[in-house]
Design goal:
This protein has five helices and two strands. The protein has about 140 residues and is an all-alpha fold. It is elongated, with a radius of gyration of 33 Å. It comes from Chitinophaga agri.
Length: about 140
């Protein structure tokens, strides 16, 4: 089998295509979650905690001749900082994505369980005495 033919079989197999679709949808879902956290959760959290913008929270490491007041200034001037606000935001994004994945997996497992628990078709009822008698007559006629 040629290399390209083997690759074509591999690439067109159902699992690979399903995986590719999952990765693409996952990337799009991550953008949605990031937007949800950045534009909805963090502003609400900032409002509750006294109008704090967590994304801009940082600690300047070491001494610097020029103090900086924003994270953008620190990056522009090359000041070493510990950007703990961005880290907090990333943790919230991770927790939200993990929770959504948990819900999807739980839903899929519930559906699989229902499918597995589907009742098996009922066994055919036992023949009645009349049917048994007719079967005996049939068998007796066959043997003659």
């Amino acid at each position: 089998m040629s290399f390209f033919k083997e690759f074509k079989e591999f690439a067109t197999r159902g699992n690979v295509i399903d995986l590719a679709v999952g990765v693409i949808i996952g990337g799009a879902f991550q953008k949605i979650v990031n937007s949800l956290v950045e534009n909805i959760f963090m502003p609400i959290l900032g409002m509750v905690t006294g109008k704090i913008d967590f994304k801009e929270k940082f600690v300047q490491l070491g001494s610097s001749d020029t103090p900086v007041t924003t994270l953008a200034q620190a990056k522009e001037k090359g000041v070493t900082v510990l950007a703990y606000g961005a880290f907090i935001q990333t943790i919230i994004e991770f927790i939200l994505i993990a929770f959504c994945i948990f819900l999807v997996v739980k839903f899929i497992n519930t559906m699989r369980k229902k499918k597995e628990e589907a009742p098996a078709p009922a066994a055919p009822p036992a023949p009645t005495t009349q049917e048994k008698l007719l079967m005996e007559i049939r068998d007796a006629l066959k043997n003659k």
